[in-house]
Amino acid sequence: MLKITLRDSYETSDHGTQNHTSNASLSFLREFNKQKATKTKTITVESLNWQQAQAHTGRWSNLISRSLDANPFLNPAFLLSAAQHADQGHEPQFIFITDHSIKNSDQNLIGLFVLDLPTPGKGTIGRFWQRSYTALGTPLLDRTRANLALDHLFDWIKIHYYHLTGLQIPMLPAESQTALLLDQYLLDKGHERKILTQFQRAILSAGENIDTLNASGSKAKHIRNWRRQLRRLEEMGTLSYEVATKPSEIRASMEEFLALEGRGWKGEKKTALVANAQTATFTRSMTRLLAREGLCTLHALKLNGRAIAMGIVLTSEDQACFWKIAYDEAYAAFSPGIQFVLAFSRHQMTQPDISMTDSCAIPNHPMIDRVWPERQTMIDVMFSLRSENSLTFNLALKREHMRRSMRAMAKKAYYRLLGKQAV
């Protein structure tokens, strides 16, 4: 366990809002500037492994309720399960930043970053820890002390990982409060910031009418076809929509989901959750633990009591993530995936505590993009850890661009050999 105590004085300053932020963000950025403390505070930064982090789940959960943005993938039940079942040598570091001037120990955690920091000789760029099954990289930052947390994160990395020149955050919503605050913070401190990739991802906002959305986002021919397919399914028997919420229900539904996904094309490609023993164990454990907190539900579209399509939904605060979907390919002629998403959308719109559902989908998804026309911009961002040494950072940036280009070309060549289109 690495631990450092830093004592610094922060002076109040008032930086003007920059043109790259929208007018709607002005009030938020003014609040950010007000966060600058006028007195000395003692902040501790601790680097913990997943076993050590387990002892802090109470403080961790409290920070979630105070954070700038929700991230279901940073819930303790999800993240600790993922770290526990990660391949050896790929476990993350949990960076806990605590403000000891806050007397209530349940509320003094002001930042949590889950990082992959290479040792000397193995890279000069640190990354926010990510796996193929995580769809958001947003860190947890106390909404009133976020700048203090960032100050001490940067100082801690510069001391313990002096060879690193930058950090990457993947899959960050570009208009989130966290992204806007980070932009302003980096600008104020003179750090460089570069967007590596940017894409649009489908979302479903609360208060929308799914039929109105379909009319605006889908061609009339598609809508008529979906309705025709639905009528044909209803003619085949009883069509029902069910939601499993209790841990005992989640356990049984999860096995049903794993079997359904494993029988489909993901099973053939060996990318189904059940195809990897570690991933399957992680999924079973994570969903049950989240269900105990009411943060995971399994949805099913059933025909005569048998699931023809299912989905896994994770929640945090007022945000839901449509994490996984599977369907029975024997009913492909009836578009079971589309029928499920339409039913799921209607269900989500009746949930008063959910303001937005993230599709977690890849760019230009051939199915969900036709049903959900609303988009949020997602970015992979890389920024320097120091205001100086821009040459070193730019060299690392070029290497990262080259690495991504080579990976994309290799993936394209692989799919070309298979006679399929890369996604």
Report on this model:
With 423 residues, the chain is an alpha+beta fold. It is built from 14 helices and 14 strands. The chain has helices spanning 26-34, 50-53, 57-66, 76-84, 146-160, 177-189, 210-217, 220-235, 247-263, 265-268, 277-292, 336-348, 368-371, 390-418; strands at 2-8, 41-48, 93-99, 109-116, 125-128, 140-141, 166-173, 193-205, 239-244, 296-303, 306-316, 319-327, 356-358, 375-384. Residues 1-24 and 32-40 have low confidence and may be disordered. Strands 1, 2, 3, 4, 5, 6, 7, 8, 9, 10, 11, 12, 13 and 14 form a 14-stranded mixed β-sheet that branches. 39% of the residues are buried. It has two domains: 2-200 and 378-418, Aminopeptidase, CATH 3.40.630; 207-354, Aminopeptidase, CATH 3.40.630.
In short, what is this structure?
With 423 residues, the chain is an alpha+beta fold. The chain is 39% helix and 25% strand. It has two domains: 2-200 and 378-418, 3-Layer(aba) Sandwich (Aminopeptidase), CATH 3.40.630; 207-354, Aminopeptidase.
